[in-house]
Design goal:
heterodimer, A: 117 residues, alpha+beta, Alpha-Beta Plaits, three-stranded antiparallel beta sheet, 5 strands, elongated, B: 358 residues, Cytochrome-c3 Hydrogenase, chain B, 12 helices, 8 strands, 47% helix, 15% strand, globular, binds iron/sulfur cluster
Chain lengths: 117, 358
């Protein structure tokens, strides 16, 4: 009995084990997989990412030059990041803010035309 | 004497996952127990027909949240064997480190829940506080807390730098100190002993006959651990399975508690022996053939069976999880127990229903 009491006394007098979130938030770890960033500038619309994605979260439309990712389907596995031949995708350590509507949770980007050489 | 049938679950405060026990009770004493499954079946094995074998790695990781790294590793090992490739030594060692970290957080979770099932809330909080350190290491080194997605076919995806390794060593030192502090509570405390000693005794012979696995089997005095077969990098490290002889809840608790220290030793020596070099062996082949692979999970032996025909989809994936193997032992333990001891004894086997039903 006394052994637990000792631990409890130490807890009671020591530092808090938790933080007063959100007043006091911890910086995310550098390698965190909290969000996925997409750079439309370098994308070639090759569809590799959408083929590799295990959840089918990415949709690439070649005709309309759009790239779409459903945030709710994405499981942050990183398969698309490894697959992209142009390294357009990367993880972001800071989590995105909560969204009110499902539509807002789709990352939608139009890929700019590239001048042909 | 009145005989009544009491359904325990699928929603019950002690069972964190939906599974039902129908208990035939005669005056507070259980005379028969019938389990009922199927509440969280997700059909993950059947996904092999729609996902290709590389995408299935992500599915395998999600079979169980608590031992996700070990499921992923076992699946990758099976496919690697079919492809005839061997991951580089560094990748194998990193897999070991992350698997053992998963074993640690699983055992700590179990210890916490066990304390909670006894009604010892403050101990539960204390243990979860320790567990948070392990979760932080996982997040720091891999980017995710639970489903760390580091295993890929042919190796691992994330590397560990010297700073990360030092961070792990420092955190383990802290965890070891914290665990030492709760040892007297788990082992000597009067009320804990009253609740756990001589409860749900599984004799050595019975454990063997019923095919129990993992800590349950080792708590009954049988020294068996699949890691001793030396798969992955385990062959390079020297260790003995943790064995207790009591066979009761107390023994199962001690086995898991001591395994935490064993895992820490394995991680430390793994980090010391981490060689430089590649972390992935690439292969463009498609798997073909049939294979059976075993690994030691926190709950015991997991078996993966895979049949592939050389196309990008596998033909069949079949998984036997440790909880399923331990169910026979549980059904043997329950008759004769007081109703009040049923939740604790059931929990002492560490049932993981999500992975049993897949
Ligand atoms: S991180 Fe994984 S799930 Fe998310 S979009 Fe990329 S491949 Fe798909
Ligand atoms: S993001 Fe990369 S993989 Fe996906 S379409 Fe663009 S270039 Fe191809």
């Amino acid at each position: 009995m006394t052994s637990m009491l000792k631990i409890l006394l130490k807890n009671g007098t020591g530092r808090y084990a938790t933080r007063l979130y959100p007043a006091e938030a911890r910086e995310p770890f550098a390698k965190n997989r909290a969000d996925l960033s997409f750079d439309p500038g370098c994308c070639r619309l090759c569809k590799t990412c959408s083929r590799k994605c295990p959840t089918g979260a990415i949709e690439v439309d070649k005709e309309n030059r759009t790239w779409k990712r459903d945030v709710f389907s994405c499981v942050f596995c990183g398969d698309c990041i490894e697959a992209c031949p142009k390294s357009c995708l990367s993880f972001v350590a800071r989590p995105p803010l909560p969204q009110k509507h499902h539509q807002q949770a789709v990352v939608y980007a139009t890929v700019p035309e590239r001048s042909k050489k | 004497m009145t005989v009544s049938v009491i359904p325990v679950g699928p929603q019950h405060p002690v069972f964190l996952e939906p599974f039902q026990l129908k208990l035939v009770v005669e005056d507070e004493v259980v005379s028969e127990a019938l389990p009922r499954f199927g509440y969280v079946h997700r059909g993950l094995e059947a996904l092999v027909v729609s996902k290709d074998f590389r995408q299935m790695t992500r599915v395998a990781e999600r079979i169980c949240g608590i031992c996700s790294a070990i499921h992923g590793m076992t699946y990758c090992r099976a496919i690697e064997k079919l492809l005839g490739i061997t991951p580089p030594p560094r990748a194998q060692m990193l897999r070991l480190v992350w698997s053992e970290l998963h074993r640690m957080h699983s055992h700590l979770l179990w210890l916490g829940l066990f304390a909670e099932a006894m009604g010892f809330e403050s101990l539960f909080m204390q243990i979860f506080r320790i567990r948070e350190t392990v979760m932080d290491i996982l997040e720091q080194t891999t980017g995710n807390r639970v489903i760390i997605s580091v295993n890929v076919i042919g190796g691992v995806r994330r590397d560990l730098d010297a700073e990360g390794a030092d961070g792990i060593r420092r955190a383990l030192k802290k965890v070891a100190g914290d665990l030492e502090r709760i040892r007297p509570v788990l082992v000597d405390d009067y009320s804990v002993r009253k609740r756990t000693e001589e409860k749900g005794i599984l004799a050595k012979e019975r454990a063997y006959e019923l095919g129990a696995v993992g800590p349950v089997l080792r708590a009954s005095g049988i020294s068996q651990d699949i890691r001793r077969t030396g798969y992955g990098a385990y062959g390079e490290l020297d260790f003995e399975p943790v064995v207790e002889s009591g066979g009761d809840c107390q023994a199962r608790c001690k086995v898991r508690y001591r395994e935490l220290f064993q895992s820490m030793d394995l991680i430390r020596s793994g980090l010391d022996r981490l060689s430089d070099g590649e972390i992935q062996t690439k292969s463009k082949e498609k798997p073909e053939g049939e294979i059976l692979v075993r690994s030691e999970q926190p709950r015991g032996e997991v078996v993966y069976y895979i049949r592939a025909d050389g196309s990008k989809h596998l033909q069949r994936l079949r998984i036997r999880t440790p909880t399923f193997a331990n169910m026979a032992a549980l059904m043997d333990l329950l008759p004769g127990l007081d109703l009040a001891d049923v939740p604790l004894v059931t929990l002492s086997l560490d049932p993981c229903i999500a992975c049993t039903e897949r």
